[in-house]
Specification:
- The chain is an alpha+beta fold.
- It folds into two domains: 123 residues, Ribosomal Protein S5, domain 2 (2-Layer Sandwich); 155 residues, lpxc deacetylase, domain 1 (2-Layer Sandwich).
- Helices cover 24% and strands 35% of the residues.
- The chain contains six helices and 18 strands.
- Strands 11, 12, 13, 14, 15 and 18 form a six-stranded mixed beta sheet that branches. Strands 2-3-9-4-5 form a five-stranded mixed beta sheet, covered by helices on one side.
- Strand 16, helix 4 and strand 17 form a beta-alpha-beta unit.
- Helix 1 packs across helix 5 and helix 5 crosses helix 6.
- The longest helix has 17 residues.
- It is globular and about 55 Å long.
């Protein structure tokens, strides 16, 4: 049996947003048991607040965006992955803009700052969603104009584990596979520092769409035509970051016991699996 946790004191993190490139400040505040994870926009009138759950998601293009009544908070998946990885249940996240700060491009900086203040057990047991029989979704991701099948399966397990296969015909990245079993120590050692992938040829297009405005190239794994443009943190950093995203996306369900098997998944399909898990759980 595990008890719910919150942070021992507030945490303040400031920095540039990954996509908008503007300076934002985020404050994490301890919350009572059974509160869950919520986000608040303190720069808007009335300081509106929304809970981090499936029904709050409004966009999954390039990142996970939640919102309510027309206002949004985007790129929340790395922070949610940290909450999942460190088994943190109850926190209020205040931010003075529509996107969270980048940190170091992974979950490590967020986790490091949280662990500096520490975690506290609360007087209620954790509430898990447990998979009792296989649940799956499939979809299509595009490489240029070429459609590629993507699949996500949730299998019964007594803990959360993720097996992910990243496929690419790029001569540098190739195909990568990694299996991860969740514990706070494993998360910090194996997953927390993994950054997302960015191809140099795509950056100009992304910036034309108002994305990838940050000027810090070290917050991503930058892949050029002939090699990596910066130093890797893990040999298979790309697929480890895919697991980081899965952990964050599925934390919209709260604590989960399942073995997630993924091939070429992304935020959109992760959310579809989360919806399928909810539907399956209600049916049983």
């Amino acid at each position: 049996m595990k008890y719910q946790k919150t942070i021992a004191a507030e945490v303040i993190i400031a920095g540039k947003a990954l996509h908008k490139g503007i300076l934002v400040t985020m404050r994490l505040l301890p919350q009572p048991a059974n509160t869950g994870i919520s986000f608040r926009r303190i720069d808007l009138p009335g300081k509106p607040q929304v809970k981090a759950e499936i029904s709050s998601v409004v966009d999954t293009k390039r990142s996970v965006t939640i919102g309510k009544d027309g206002w949004i908070i985007s790129t929340i998946e790395h922070l949610l992955a940290v909450f999942q990885g460190l088994e943190i249940d109850n926190v209020l996240v205040e931010v003075d803009g529509e996107e969270l700060p980048t940190g170091d491009g992974s979950g490590h900086y967020f986790a490091e700052q949280i662990l500096k203040v520490g975690l506290v057990d609360q007087d209620c047991l954790r509430n898990y969603t447990a998979i009792t029989e296989p649940t799956w979704v499939s979809g299509v991701v595009y490489k240029g104009n070429e459609p590629l099948k993507a699949t996500l399966v949730a299998l019964p397990s007594d803990q959360l584990e993720v097996s992910f296969t990243f496929t690419s015909d790029h001569k540098i990245t190739g195909t990568q596979y990694y299996h991860f079993m969740l514990s706070p120590d494993n998360f910090m050692r194996e997953i927390a520092s993994a950054r997302t992938i960015a191809f140099t040829k795509e950056i100009e297009y992304l910036r034309s769409q108002g994305l990838a405005q940050s000027d810090d190239i070290n917050c991503v794994v930058l892949v050029g035509e002939n090699g990596y443009e910066n130093e890797l943190r893990y040999p298979e950093e790309i697929v480890r970051h895919k697991i980081l995203d899965v952990l964050g996306d599925l934390y919209l369900l709260g604590p989960l016991k399942a073995h997630i098997v993924a091939v070429r998944s992304g935020h959109t399909l992760d959310l579809e699996l989360a919806k399928a898990i909810v539907a399956h759980t209600r049916a049983n």
